[in-house]
Write a structure and sequence with these properties.
The complex is a heterodimer of chains A (114) and B (395). Chain A is an all-alpha fold and 114 residues long. Chain A has helices at 2-33, 40-51, 54-66, 77-83, 93-107. Chain A has one domain. In chain A, helix 2 packs across helix 3 (54-66). Chain A is globular and about 60 Å long. The termini of chain A are far apart. The relative contact order of chain A is 0.13. Chain B is α+β, with helices and mostly antiparallel strands and 395 residues long. Among the domains of chain B are: 39-144; 257-394, 2-Layer Sandwich (Heat Shock Protein 90). Chain B has seven helices and 14 strands. Chain B has helices at 13-73, 146-212, 220-248, 261-278, 297-313, 341-344, 364-374; strands spanning 2-3, 88-92, 98-101, 114-117, 120-125, 136-142, 252-253, 256-260, 282-287, 292-296, 320-326, 329-334, 378-384, 388-394. In chain B, the strands form four sheets. Chain B has a five-stranded antiparallel sheet. A five-stranded mixed sheet of chain B has the order 9-11-12-14-13, with helices on one face. In chain B, a hairpin with a 2-residue loop joins strand 11 and strand 12. In chain B, helix 1 (13-73) packs antiparallel against helix 2 (146-212) and helix 4 (261-278) runs parallel beside helix 5 (297-313). Classes of the chains: A mainly alpha (114), B alpha+beta (395).
């Protein structure tokens, strides 16, 4: 019986952890981006267009999130004049990387083409 | 003994080996050079063919990039990779990771622009913008191989022609290099042939005339002198025979017949008896009668002569020579100086001499081995220093 509860506890806690991971991306990225007229996937494909590989794309996003500047943005000038530059992230490096991993997995091309 | 005139010079073993070595080395060098040239020509023709295809492949890749651009824009609505009947293709990201591929040959060389990968031609294009993350766009078309089919025979024919030509040149170079040596050999050959021929007549005259003298009527002093003359003449005659054999060896046609070896052996011992008496050497004979051998008379005589004269020459004064002849075996044992073990191996080499205290050319045993080889005779030499040597001939 004790063992059953222990296993149940383990499953439940892992599910919560999974939700917590999703939450980083949901609460810290989607929440704001959904208010913008440009959907979040369009940013991804703009990064892909310029940086190609997973490593380069993630690095560019990470650098931009930590210190957003006009020079580093991949968005068009008109977009920047209208909406401006985003604020610096308040997430820790680790949390930011986690969020970026979720973002990459969501929209990456690998395995999606037929 | 029949002598074929006007035949070529007999090149000795070491000279033949040198010639063979030169020919092998020369052929190897020619093959390497021709191989390199053929390879360069092949590479050149391959590049020519690839340059020919380059424009078509460039157009294909532009086409694909254009369609990738469309797909990039509409990726949320469409996920079908653009395919084309005319070519296969693949896209790779900047870390050379495969994004999508329909390639048949997966051997990709990112350092090249256009190259052969197995039976396929690959062309790599890098679009200005990385649509769908594709930094490298690879186009693949099959290589029909016609170009290779065409140059294959060309290369083979030219290779063969060039090889034959180079061999001809090599042959002439060799002839030029060998000319002085050939001339010297010719001169020596002719000199020996002439000299030996000129020697033969007077020596034969001396020997025949001495043999005709009634020795019983002579007083002892004169008999001794006559005997010495006879020995000297026989020694010269023997040397003459050896030299003729060596210089004309390859040109002697064997006149084989069934020979009574017992009779011949007895006659030859008789012939050398005067030499043996000079050194007070006793013959101890055990010769079975009517032993026959199928052989050339001159050659078997030469073989016996050399063995007996060696047994006398290297014997001690007052020694003995045991001659045994039985079925298929002839043995000649002497009480001479013997031969050291380390010398036994090179005993039959021409001009090899181990005992310089007595005269000679070092050709005697070489002649014996040549004759033995011709008639498949087995020579067995046992020797102990300062006890004596036993030579056994078996057939």
């Amino acid at each position: 019986m004790v063992r059953f509860f222990l296993i149940l506890l383990l499953i439940v806690s892992s599910l919560y952890a999974q939700r917590a991971e999703d939450d980083i991306y949901e609460t810290n990225c989607i929440k704001c981006h959904s208010k913008l007229p440009v959907s979040i996937d369009k940013y991804f494909y703009r990064y892909l267009l310029k940086y190609s590989s997973e490593k380069d794309v993630k690095k560019a996003m990470f650098d931009y999130m930590q210190n957003p500047t006009v020079e580093k943005t991949i968005m068009a000038e008109s977009f920047i004049t209208r909406f401006g530059i985003k604020k610096k992230t308040n997430l820790s490096d680790e949390k930011l990387k986690e969020a970026l991993d979720i973002y990459w997995d969501e929209y990456k091309i690998f395995g999606k083409l037929k | 003994m029949l002598v074929l005139k006007n035949s070529g010079i007999d090149l000795t073993k070491s000279e033949t080996r040198t010639l063979l070595g030169f020919s092998l080395l020369y052929s190897f060098l020619v093959l390497v050079i021709l191989g390199v040239v053929s390879f360069l020509y092949y590479g050149f023709q391959k590049d020519l063919m690839l340059q020919d295809k380059r424009q078509i492949l460039q157009n294909y890749s532009n086409d694909l990039i254009f369609r990738l651009k469309d797909l990039h824009i509409d990726i949320d609505k469409n996920d079908i990779y653009p395919r084309d009947e005319r070519f296969e293709s693949a896209i790779f990201d900047s870390s050379k990771k495969n994004i999508f591929s329909t390639l048949k040959s997966s051997n990709i060389d990112f350092k090249e622009v256009i190259y052969l990968s197995g039976n396929y031609i690959h062309f790599i294009n890098e679009p200005e913008s990385y649509y769908l993350g594709s930094k490298y766009v690879i186009i693949e078309i099959p290589d029909d191989g016609i170009w290779f089919e065409q140059i294959r025979y060309k290369i083979a024919i030219y290779f063969l022609l060039a090889f034959i030509f180079m061999m001809f040149i090599g042959y002439f170079i060799l002839r030029q290099v060998l000319k002085p040596m050939r001339d010297a050999l010719h001169l020596l050959d002719r000199f020996i042939k002439d000299t030996t021929h000129e020697l033969n007549t007077p020596v034969t005259a001396i020997i025949t005339n001495i043999e005709m003298i009634e020795k019983d009527d002579l007083d002892e002093k004169l008999l001794k002198k006559i005997n010495r003359i006879e020995i000297g003449a026989k020694t010269i005659s023997n040397i003459y025979e050896d030299l003729t054999f060596i210089t004309l060896n390859n040109q002697i046609i064997s006149n084989n017949e069934n020979i009574n070896l017992s009779t011949v052996l007895t006659q030859r011992i008789e012939y050398f008896n005067s030499l043996a008496i000079m050194k007070k050497i006793n013959f101890d004979l055990d010769i079975q009668e009517n032993i026959f051998i199928f052989c050339d008379m001159k050659k078997i005589t030469k073989l016996i002569d050399n063995l007996i004269s060696n047994a006398i020459k290297y014997n001690k004064i007052g020694g003995f020579i045991k001659v045994n002849l039985k079925d298929n075996i002839l043995s000649i044992e002497d009480s001479g100086k013997g031969i050291a073990k380390e010398h036994l191996k090179s005993l039959f080499e021409r001009y090899s001499r181990f005992d310089k205290s007595v005269g000679g050319f070092g050709i005697g045993l070489n002649i014996v081995s040549l004759i033995a080889k011709e008639y498949d005779l087995k020579i067995d030499i046992k020797s102990e220093v300062s006890i004596g040597t036993t030579v056994e001939i078996k057939w």
